[in-house]
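sorry for the late reply, my laptop died twice this morning and i had to redo everyting from scratch. anyway the thing you sent over, i finally got around to it. pasting the sequence first so we're on the same page, its 430 residues, then the predicted structure underneath. double check i copied it right bc i was rushing
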Amino acid sequence: MFNIWSKLFLEEKPSIGLSFFRIFVAITVGAHVLPTFCHLGDNYFSTAFKDYNLIFFTPQVVELVQRSPDWFVVMFVWIFCIFWFLFLIGLWSQISCILMVLACYYFYALNSFHVGTLSWDILLVTLFLMCLTAYHGDYFSLDALLRGNEESYKKRRPIFIQRLLQLQIGFTYFYTALYKVTAQGNWLTDNPIYNLMNYPTASASVMKFFILKDYLMHHPQLCYFLGIAIVVIEFSMVFLLFYPKTRIAAIYLGIIFHITLILTLDVPAIFFFLFIPQLLLFIDPDNVVKWIEQKRLFNQSSNKQSQLIYDGQCQFCLASVKKLKILDLYGTLRFVDLHQIDFHSAREDGLTKEKALSQLYLIEPDGALYGGFQVFRRICFTMPMLYPFIPIFYFPGMGILGPIIYRFIAKNRYLLHFNHTCQNNACFRQ
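ok and here's the structure:
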C-alpha cells in the first residue's frame, strides 16, 4: 500500500507542467474577477445589490465582511490586482497566490451575485491547491530567473499537487455525469438536449445559435443519443485519463468536448481557460522534458544555434546572459564572449571589436547580423518565456523608442550593478 501511495503521490517529476498551468489559473481568475471591478458601486460598495452564499460562508463571516466601508473594498481591489499580477508573472508565486485567493474569498463573501457560480466554486478548490505549493514558479516565472538555475525546467518535485489537480478534473467529469442521471431532468429517461433546441425562449440564456441547431430541432432521436453519448463520455473520462494507453486520446476528447461546449452553450469562460490546461496536466512531465532535451540536442548538433556576442568583462552583461540561458529553453543560442574572438582576421559579417563593445550582437546560422534592440526582437520568437513581449517589441513606435532605450542601457551597462569598482565605467578601463 505504501508503494502504491508513493508511486501515485510522492514520486518526483519535473514541475514544468504545473508552472505552465499557473499562468492559465491566473488568466482564468483575472478574466472572472477583474471585470467586476469596473462598476464597484453596483457590485461591491454599500450601494450595490447584494446576494450572499450562506451555504459556502457562515452567517458570521458574511456579517463581518458586510461591515466593510467602501475604502476597505478599494484596498482589497488593489490587493487583488497587485498579487494577481505577481502570481501571473510568477514573482513570489506562493505568497502571491495566497493573498490573491484571500481577496477572492473576500469579494465572494461581499457579493456572491457577481462571482458566485458552480465554476467559481471549482476554481476556488483549484486555487486552494495552488496555495499549497511554491514550485509552480519553477519555470515560466520571475522566480525561476531570480533563482538563476539554468536547469529549472527539469527540476524534480513531488507530484502530489499535480495528482490532486488531476483527480479534481477527473471527478468533476464523473459527478457531472452522475448529476445528469440522478437529478430532475434525467438524461437517460428524458431528452434535455431536444428540449433546449425547441424551446428557445426558455433556453435563450443557455443555448447559442450554431450550424446544426435547426437540424437537431427536428431529430429528437439524434438529440437523445447525443445526450447519452455525453453522459457516457463524462462517466468514462476519469478512467480514460488515468489509464496510460488511453490518456492522450482522452485529452484530445476532452479538448474537443470543451470547445463544443463553448460553441454551443453560454457557459462560463472557466470551462475554456482552465479545463483544457488542466487536462494537459495528464501529460507525463518526463516526456515533456525529454522532448525539450531532444530539441536542445538537435539545435546544438545541427548548427541551428545563433551566436550571441556579449561583453564578458561586464557584470551586468554576465548577469543578463545568465538569465538568457534560463530563458533559452530550446538551446537556440550559443553565447560567445567578445574578448575571446579574434577580430584581427577579416570577418564576412563586418563585426568589429568596437561594434561588439557598444551593444549585443546576434549572428544567425545564415550569417545575418543583428545588433542592439533588434537582437531581442529576434530571440523573443525562440524563447517561450519571451512570447508575451512580442506585441510590446513590435508595437508601433517601438522601432524608434526601443533602440533609444537600449542604447542608454548599453552605454551605462558597467554602472548597472553593485560592484563599486565599476563606478564611472572603471571596469571597462581595467
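The chain has three domains: 12-158, 162-267, 303-342+350-429.
thats about all i looked at so far, will dig more tmrw
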